[in-house]
Amino acid sequence: MKPFKTIGVIAKRGDTRLATPLAQLLEHLRRHDYEALLDESADGMLPAETLYPRATLGQRCDLAIVVGGDGTLLHASRSLADDGVPLVGVNLGRLGFLVDVSPERMLPVIDTVLAGHFVEESRALLHSEVWRDGALVTRQDALNDVVLHSHDLVRMIEFNTFVDDRFVNSQRADGLVVATPTGSTAYALSAGGPVVSPSLAAILLVPVCPHTLSNRPIVIGAQSQIEIVLCEQNQTTSQVAFDGQATTGLQPGDRIRIRQKPAMLRLLHPPDYDHFHILRAKLRWGETP
Q: Within the chain, where are the H helices?
């Protein structure tokens, strides 16, 4: 029995280079008797195809193939994690941390995965809420990170951090990155955070250019709840970004509450997947200058 029957195909929105590989993938799936649903993200690429809303893919699909880059997979993960739909990523020619199937290997690797031969990982997401004067402003999920940062000025933000209702510290910094292990190789790494194994149950708190150099990255348990409170005297126009794709403006006194999302992302890789190989390739470990 086939482990997957209905396959969703998600594309990097607006990238017309994907028209040919998308058409090849859809034709290949249907020729092998799979039901293939093309996501609305492919609008304008294949005019003859019926497009389906993301919610429909979540309800009907056993697997989603994401054709694009890590950003495309980040967006797909937030919309499909609650439905338990596993994702496999096909990149656009450059090795990604999350989309690790090259275009040249797309069809044979997809066939291998569809036959039930793959490595499956569970990746944690963060669920965040922004509160203002006791009222909820927004709810957002993130696979990589939740980032407090200034909006338009190079000026430090003043904020307090709490973990499980316990005061951690007061900071003046350019911002704070709250990251999952998956996000440890994204903005958190640029801010001086550690590389963390994706399988580790942890959350990272990485200050961005703190005024006090003794403020260092902290790794806490995945079940902890983080609260970031903007100081009332804070004069910097700031905002919070979720995976760098959605943002919310902040005011003094706002509270950002962050915890691990109960639902996990199911991420599938080819059988020869090697996380350390990807780290070596992306971070250029061992290369001679």
A: 19-31, 54-60, 70-80, 106-114, 187-190, 275-283
Same structural domain, 213 and 172 = yes
Residue type, 50: T
Q: What is the pLDDT of residues 78-93, one digit of tens each?
A: 999 999 999 999 997 6
Is the dihedral angle over the CA atoms 36, 54, 19, 91 positive or is it negative?
negative
Q: Which two tokens stand for residue 190?
A: 């640029």
Query: H-helix or E-strand containing 240?
Result: strand 238-242
Distance, in Å, from the CA atom of 81 to the CA atom of 197, rounded to the nearest integer, reads: 20
For residue 284, give both structure tokens: 């250029």
Respond yes or no: is residue 70 known to be catalytic: yes
How far apart, in whole angstroms, are the C-alpha atoms of residue 26 and residue 101?
Answer: 17
CATH of residue 207's domain is 2.60.200.30
Range of the domain at 256: 126-260
Instruction: Tell me how crowded residue 209 is: count the other CB atoms within 10 A of its CB.
Output: 14
* CATH number for the domain that contains residue 50: 3.40.50.10330
Does some domain include residue 288? no
Distance from C-alpha of 74 to C-alpha of 78, rounded to nearest angstrom: 7
Our count of domains for the chain comes to: 2
Q: Average the pLDDT over each of 89-103, 105-119, 149-163 and give the range with the smallest value.
A: 89-103
Pair (11, 95) in one structural domain: yes
Same domain (yes/no): 177, 268: no
Three-state DSSP class for 58? Answer: helix
Give the ranges where 65-142 is alpha helix by DSSP (H).
70-80, 106-114
In this structure, the answer to whether residues 134 and 248 fall within a common structural domain is: yes
Which position among 15, 33, 39, 70 bears the catalytic label? 70
Alpha carbon 235 to its chain centroid, in Å, reads 30
Closest CA to 215 of 159, 154, 142, 253: 159
